[in-house]
Each structure stands twice: as structure tokens, then as C-alpha cells.
Design brief:
- The structure is a single chain.
- This protein has 3 domains: about 240 residues, Aminohydrolase, N-terminal nucleophile (Ntn) domain (Glutamine Phosphoribosylpyrophosphate, subunit 1, domain 1), CATH 3.60.20.10; about 200 residues, Rossmann fold (3-Layer(aba) Sandwich); about 140 residues, Glucose-6-phosphate isomerase like protein, domain 1 (Rossmann fold).
- α3 crosses α4 and α16 packs parallel to α18.
- About 55% of the residues are buried.
- It is built from 18 helices and 25 strands.
- It is of the alpha/beta class and about 600 residues long.
- α11 links the parallel β18 and β19.
- The longest helix has 22 residues.
- The chain has an 8-stranded antiparallel β-sheet with strand order 3-2-4-1-10-9-11-15, covered by helices on one side.
- About 35% of the residues lie in helices and about 20% in strands.
- Bound molecules: 6-O-phosphono-alpha-D-glucopyranose.
- The site of 6-O-phosphono-alpha-D-glucopyranose has 14 residues, from α9.
- Keywords: Aminotransferase, Cytoplasm, Glutamine amidotransferase, Repeat, Transferase.
């Protein structure tokens, strides 16, 4: 999704802006640009469609001390140079913007009457003309931005520069994340701290309504009423190490293989000899769990599938659990039972729909809010009563892998804690908890064993290279795992993939079965195995080709219609966490065959900060 970098420094900041944009590439974008107040006091503007490398080719000669830069993920207006940010007005002011301005049409109509020429189809262009208009009425840059944002409806993270105030960078935030990075005789803005790794490890998080005036030597922040406000300085622990490919061809492959370590770190310090420990979750965790009678989980994308798996665990443990997609939850009425814990799950902690759902939930009588998140500095973390972190490390591939499995591990630990309360005093540990804890402890090794099946998965992937569709089947907690497998395949290989609860096959999708429709099934050795086997027979009888990830003791064998890949026997509770790994590898290797841009699939973004 769109990314912002800006800088005010005593040195030429173009290399820093371009480097920052490169670091934001993982978020997904389709065009890029920068505007710098150059040595002659003019605005130098460079924009291009495609990768930051294309922008670098036309911008690396630009020289100046104050500037803004942007990667754009198209919302209003197609990916094109004229729609790329920054946008300018009268060659005096330049703006980069994340978010969506809802009243752009009425502002545009007024500005056209005022004589402003429009050169883009974006909602953003009205912001820059409005600032320009206020400056023409005699306001300074800060005051002009203050006046402008008071007229905007919608979400924005803004970086603004003007040749009339060549030493100043203005930043404003409402609903779209924006940080101020602090350096020595230089200061920065960014939508994501990873853009600033080489230049700053101290930063402030702008809050909604904040407007900041930044120079190379000063940072002043004002609230919506123009009153000065202080924001806490935070130390960032992000490092370049996490962003190296370390010999892997793609981040996605690296991240799939990092799952052993990521799960180990997520479990670290949270498992006692025979139970899940609660204290490491936070001082108030015990109190919040004590109050919880049921659970509502809201998320988007892969995080939603993690929630959907967890629902089986919670309800198996006798805790009512309801799961919903954030963008749906936001726009309907709700009945909230007393003692319901509102849980959000998010890798980035910045997904706008999830964040908006949380803000709405806070007014609705939930007992508490809990967030499961991978990014400590994120908006969701700051807005929740309690956060339990997944220690996945930075995830760069747009298709989520290690974030998903660490979310599952964390959700299982939370489910165990709530189960203990349902069964008794919240302190007594029973044999089942001990059994699951022991399984969790061996999970990293079990993941390692599944990863060693990669060569067989490569062979399997060759059957998908020429296919246009694929069907994924699962039952129980493996139905959402099948959905996640289908999502991975469609995201990165562009093969249309759908998942069905295997029992639903005969209610429609069976009509699609022929030799061109590969059917992938997840078949652990659980109480649903025999039922699943019947569903697989239904496919076989119609000439379908099956690719089955099955428990070695399932009795399923390969033949000319079925390719079975055996997974070592595993405990039922842990099984979904394990079975998603071969599906991730399958998607990766099919995409590799198809030659797609695996880490940055077309049209997709890592962090979705618009509605
Ligand atoms: C985007 C990403 C997905 C992610 C989803 C939710 O669509 O491409 O990988 O699952 O957003 O993101 P979150 O950060 O809230 O988990």
C-alpha cells in the first residue's frame, strides 16, 4: 500500500528518500515519485510508473535539503505518471498522501471554479490546491496545512513541502499512520519506520489530528486546535539484518523456512513445565482472561483465516467464539453478550478495516480488547487493552506465511488459558493442557520435518503450471487451512483457487471436476478422515486429479489419479499449524514455475491502510 518518506537535513536528501522508498517496496505499489526543494529554491519533481529503480534512474541527480517521496498503490485513478505522487500546485507546493479523501469531488468542483488546473484523476490533488490557495490568501505553510486539513473528510497521512519555505517539511495525520524519525541535524517522516533504518532509530508516532513542522534541527507538533503537544520518543529495534535475503531467491521462501525459528521465538518464555504461562502476556492478562466468557475475533485476509482456525480450538474448549471479517463487521448491527472479549488479529497492526472495527467495538460494551500483532509500534497495539505479540520477525513477502503460523500458535496459547478458567479456578493444570504444551514444544521440529518435504512438493507443483483453476478441500479446522492454501496460490501464481468444506463438494463444486481442475486436499488423521476419504472418492469417480497432504497413517496411497504426500503423524490440535506449511510451499513453487513477481504480486499490498 502507499508509502511516505520525507526529510529535512543539512545534506542532500535525495539518496535517503530513494533508499527509503526501496525499503517500502514490500508494501506493494504501482508508481513512485519525489519532490525536493533544490539548490535554486525550485521544486524538482520526478515521478514514474513501475518500480523505484525506474524513479532512481531519473531522480538520482536531484539535489536538495528538504523533500518528500511516495510509493503509490492506485485507488482513485489508474497507475500512471500523472496520478503518481507528489502532486504539485502552481509549482510552489508539493504533497504526498496516504489514505482517501472522501469529499474530494466537492473540493475539486470549487477549485475548478477558482481556476486551479487539474492534472490527475486522484483525490489527493485537491489537498495540494487547497494548501496553495490558503498560501495565496497569505497564510504560511503550517497555517495553510492546518486550514486545509480542517476542510478534509476522510483519512490522510501527509507530507508537504513548498519552495516558499524551503527549510520546512510539514506532516499531518488522521487515520493513516505517520511517524517522525529523529536524527542528528536531520529529521524525517515515514509511514513505516523500516523506511528509515539507516538514518534513524528514534521516532515519535503522530496521533490523529497532529500536524508537525519539521526542519533539520527542530520538530514541533500541534494538535487539531493548533496547540503544541508532546509525543513520546520511542527507540526502534528494526535492523537491516531482518531485511536481507540471506541467499534465498525470494522473501517468501525465506519466511516459509524461518517458521521454525519464528515459532520458537513466539513460544519462548510463554511455556512452563506443563502449562501456558500468563504473566509474559502482560500484567493485565490474567485479569482480562478472568473476565472473559466468550470471544469475538475480527481480522482481514490471512489473519482472518488464523481466527477461523482458532474458532475450532475455542469451541472445542467450551468457549463460545465468533469470527468475522473486519470490513463486514463494521457495517452491521451487533448483539454483544456480557463478558465478551473483542480480539483483533493483524500482522501489521495497521489494517484500516481492523483498526476501525476496534474503534467501533470500544463503544459497544465488550469486556476488553485484545490484539494479536507482529508489530510493536503499530496503531492496533496502541489502541488495545492488551497485546500478545507474535515474534515472527519482519515479514516482507506480501503473501503472509510466518505471521500466520505464529498467529496460530499464539491463538492456541490464548485458547488454553481461557479453557483453564472455564474448567476451574484458572490455576489448575490438567493432563490435556500438559499434552498440548508438550506438542507445542515439539512444533518447531515438526515444522522442520515438513519443510524437508520440499523436493516432493516441487514435483507436485509441476502439475499446476498449466492450470487455470484449482480447488482446495478440508474439513473441520482444516477447512480454513484449505482456504489459506487457496489464498496463497491465487495471490502469487494468479491461478484461480477456491476452497470448500469437503462436505459441500456435492452441493456445487463437483460440477467443475475434470482433469483440468486439480483438487488439493488436507487429510490429517482425525475423526473426520473417513468422511474426507469419501469426498475424495467423489472426485476420483468423476475423473478428477487429487493432490493430498495426508497423515502417514491415513491409509491413503498414490495411484494414477491421486498423488499423496505423507506428513508424519501429529497431534490433532497442532495439525492445522503444520499442514499449512506444505500448502505455502506448493503455492511458492507453482508461482516460481509461472515466473510471477512472488514477493510483490500484482495489485496487492502488504499493509492495507485504506478501506
Ligand atoms: C493484506 C496482506 C495479507 C494480510 C492482510 C491483513 O491483504 O497482503 O497478507 O493477511 O492484508 O493484514 P494484517 O496486517 O491485518 O494481518
Amino acid at each position: 500500500m502507499c508509502g511516505i518518506v520525507g526529510a529535512a537535513a543539512a545534506r542532500n536528501i535525495t539518496p535517503t528518500l530513494l533508499d527509503g522508498l526501496r525499503r517500502l517496496e514490500y508494501r506493494g505499489y504501482d508508481s513512485a515519485g519525489l519532490a525536493v526543494v533544490d539548490g535554486k529554491g525550485q521544486l524538482s519533481l520526478r515521478r514514474s510508473v513501475g518500480r523505484v529503480a525506474s524513479l532512481t534512474a531519473i531522480a538520482d541527480q536531484v539535489d536538495g535539503h528538504v523533500g518528500i517521496a511516495h510509493t503509490r498503490w492506485a485507488t482513485h485513478g489508474r497507475p500512471a505518471e500523472n496520478n503518481a505522487h507528489p502532486h504539485t500546485s502552481s509549482s510552489q507546493v508539493a504533497v504526498v498522501h496516504n489514505g482517501i479523501i472522501e469529499n474530494h469531488q466537492e473540493l475539486r468542483a470549487r477549485q475548478i471554479e477558482q481556476g486551479f488546473p487539474f492534472s490527475s484523476e486522484t483525490d489527493t490533488e485537491v489537498i495540494v490546491h487547497q494548501i496553495d490557495w490558503h498560501m495565496q490568501q497569505g497564510l504560511g505553510l503550517l497555517a495553510a496545512v492546518q486550514a486545509t486539513v480542517s476542510e478534509l473528510r476522510g483519512a490522510y497521512g501527509l507530507g508537504v513541502v513548498s519552495k516558499l519555505e524551503p527549510d520546512t517539511l510539514i506532516a499531518a495525520r488522521s487515520g493513516s499512520p505517520l511517524l517522525i524519525g529523529l536524527g542528528e541535524h536531520e529529521n524525517f517522516i515515514a509511514s513505516d519506520m523500516s523506511a528509515l533504518i539507516p538514518v534513524s532509530n528514534r521516532y515519535m508516532v503522530m496521533e490523529d489530528g497532529d500536524i508537525a513542522k519539521i526542519t533539520s534541527t527542530s520538530v514541533e507538533i500541534f494538535d487539531l486546535n493548533g496547540q503544541p503537544v508532546e509525543r513520546k520518543v520511542i527507540i526502534s529495534h528494526l535492523s537491516d539484518e531482518e531485511t536481507e535475503l540471506e541467499g534465498y531467491a525470494h522473501y517468501m521462501k525465506k519466511e516459509i523456512h524461518e517458521q521454525t525459528r519464528a515459532i520458537t521465538e513466539t513460544l519462548e518464555g510463554r511455556l512452563g513445565a506443563d502449562s501456558v504461562l500468563e504473566l509474559p502476556f502482560g500484567d493485565n492478562a490474567r485479569e482480562i482472561f478472568d473476565r472473559t466468557k466468550e470471544v469475538k475475533i475480527i481480522a482481514c485476509g490471512t489473519s482472518y483465516y488464523a481466527a477461523s482456525v482458532a474458532r475450532y480450538w475455542f469451541e472445542e474448549f467450551g468457549i463460545k467464539c465468533d469470527v468475522e471479517i473486519a470490513s463486514e463487521y463494521r457495517y452491521r448491527k451487533h448483539v454483544v453478550n456480557p463478558g465478551t472479549l473483542f480480539m483483533t488479529i493483524s500482522q501489521s497492526g495497521e489494517t484500516l478495516d481492523t483498526m476501525a472495527a476496534l474503534e467501533m467495538a470500544k463503544t459497544m460494551g465488550y469486556s476488553n480488547t485484545l490484539c494479536i500483532c507482529n508489530v510493536p509500534e503499530s496503531s492496533l497495539v496502541r489502541a488495545s487493552d492488551l497485546t500478545i505479540f507474535t515474534h515472527a520477525g519482519r515479514e516482507i513477502g506480501v503473501a503472509s506465511t510466518k505471521a500466520f503460523t505464529t498467529q496460530l500458535v499464539t491463538l492456541l496459547m490464548v485458547a488454553i488459558c481461557l479453557r483453564r478458567r472455564r474448567l476451574g479456578d484458572g490455576r489448575t493444570i490438567d493432563a490435556m493442557e500438559t499434552e498440548i504444551v508438550n506438542e507445542l514444544r515439539t512444533l518447531p521440529q515438526q515444522i522442520e520435518n515438513v519443510l524437508s518435504l520440499e523436493d516432493q512438493i516441487i514435483v507436485m507443483s509441476k502439475h499446476f503450471g498449466d492450470k487455470e483453476h484449482a480447488l482446495f478441500l478440508g474439513r473441520g479446522a482444516h477447512f480454513p487451512i484449505a482456504m489459506e492454501g487457496a489464498l496463497k496460490l491465487k495471490e502469487i501464481s494468479y491461478i484461480h483457487a477456491e476452497a470448500y468444506a469437503a462436505g459441500e463438494l456435492k452441493h456445487g463444486p463437483l460440477a467443475l471436476i475434470d482433469e483440468d481442475m486439480p483438487v488439493v486436499a488436507v487429510a490429517p488423521n482425525d475423526e473426520l478422515l473417513e468422511k474426507l476419504k469419501s469426498n475424495l472418492e467423489e472426485v476420483r469417480a468423476r475423473g478428477g486429479k487429487l493432490f493430498v497432504f495426508a497423515d502417514a497413517e491415513s491409509g491413503l496411497r498414490s495411484d494414477d489419479q491421486v498423488m499423496v504426500l505423507n506428513v508424519a503423524p501429529v497431534n490433532n490440535f497442532i495439525a492445522p499449524i503444520l499442514y499449512v506449511v506444505p500448502l505455502q510451499l506448493l503455492a511458492y513453487h507453482v508461482a516460481l514455475l509461472k515466473g510471477t513477481d512472488i514477493d510483490k504480486p500484482r495489485n496487492l499490498a502488504k499493509s492495507v491502510t485504506v478501506e
